[in-house]
Amino acid sequence: MKFPPWTSVSEAARLLKAGEVVAIPTETVYGLAGNAFEPKALAKIFAAKERPTFDPLIVHIADIAQLTDIAKDIPDSAYRLAEAYWPGPMTIILPKKDCIPDLCTSALPSVAVRFPSHPIAQAIIKESGLPLAAPSANLFKHVSPTTAEHVAAQLADRIAGIVDGGPCSVGVESSIISLTGEKPTVLRPGAITPEMFAKVLGDVAIKESTSKPGQPMLAPGQCDTHYRPQVPLYYGEIPVGYTLPEHTVRIAFGTQAGPIPATVNLSATGDMVEATSKLYAFMHDLDKTEYDLILVDPIPNTGVGMALNDRLKRASIKRL
Ligand code: TXA
Ligand code: MG
Question: Are 277 and 197 spatial neighbours (Cβ–Cβ below 8 Å)?
């Protein structure tokens, strides 16, 4: 096999139909895709990522009509959300059909569905003719990949192919909303903000994630260390009198003053969308043994900033 296993759209579709797993670009992060109907392909996804099977997968479609292949008892609210924000960075939780294997949903009676906007993701789903289960294409608990090179660095020797679609435009995982309870509930913040959900649905609830080891994860990152780089990253106030290690680097945001000069800036103008598209790439770039500590400037906890704060809090060590 050539290495890394760079793959074309049609070769990816062929491999997926043959039950293999292939990394594909989406607008949020790269996904590790496999046939959502095929337990053996799903098992390969869990094995390649070293992901525990209590963490369920998102199923990707390329047409709203495909929803009925996967989900049942679909409420009108799902179609209203789909009209507003699909294709795009939104995942909807719905009651699952029996054809979706338990391995895909960690035996939950519900399934997570997303219609990505990335043209290459859509082309691969269409050409394979399959709904594709795809978690982020990283090892479990590592930072999600936003370039094909990030995928290759972690998974090249474990998977059948990688399709390079360039850097991801959104840069954090999709917003997840559950429509299975009494009230629509946001399980994971992302680029579709609670305000955007409320605009379509009226009132929405936001779930605070709590850890329940061994139970199916209803929202990701219930493991506290979910998005953690190897170099300690700290997101919070620096205690008075604390001496920074010699090789500290700083991910700045906007023009705020920091304890050391900015190493990189998420957005010089304080643009939250630009910051989102760059955060994981910076976390990958600065995750080098020559550094002792990564500091990140505070980011307002509003709009898509809620997704950044959520990921940064999980990535951060608890104290300096
Ligand atoms: O943007 C994204 O969503 C990316 C790209 C590849 O589409 N995928 C992604 O997948 O972030 P992953 O595996 O990293 O996150 C999937 C999360 C799980 O951790 C789980 O908490 C939630 O989706 N999930 C999946 N099925 C669920 C279900 N039936 N009920 C509640 N949450 C579910
Ligand atoms: Mg993930």
Answer: no
pTM, two decimals, is: 0.94
pLDDT tens for 95-131 read 999 999 999 999 999 999 999 999 999 999 999 999 9
Query: Is residue 214 domain-resident?
Result: no
Compute φ and ψ for 194, nearest 5 degrees: -55, -35
Given this model, what pLDDT does residue 218 score?
57
180 and 96 fall within a common domain: yes
Task: Please choose from 22, 60, 90, 91 the residue to mutate so as to test ligand 1's pocket, defined by most ligand atoms within 8 A of CB.
Answer: 91
Is any atom of ligand 1 closer than 6 Å to the C-beta of 111? Answer: yes
Cβ(249) to ligand 1 under 6 A?
no
Query: Which atom of ligand 1 is closest in space to residue 57's alpha carbon?
Result: 25
Please report the atom of ligand 1 found closest to the CA of residue 172.
1
Question: Domain of 142: which CATH number?
Answer: 3.90.870.10
The pair phi, psi for residue 279, each rounded to 5°, is: -55, -55
Residue 255 belongs to domain spanning? 233-315
**172 and 250: one domain?**
no
Ligand 1 proximity of 161 Cβ (cutoff 6 Å): no
Please calculate the CA angle 56-58-59 and round it to the nearest 5 degrees: 125
Residue 75 amino acid letter: P
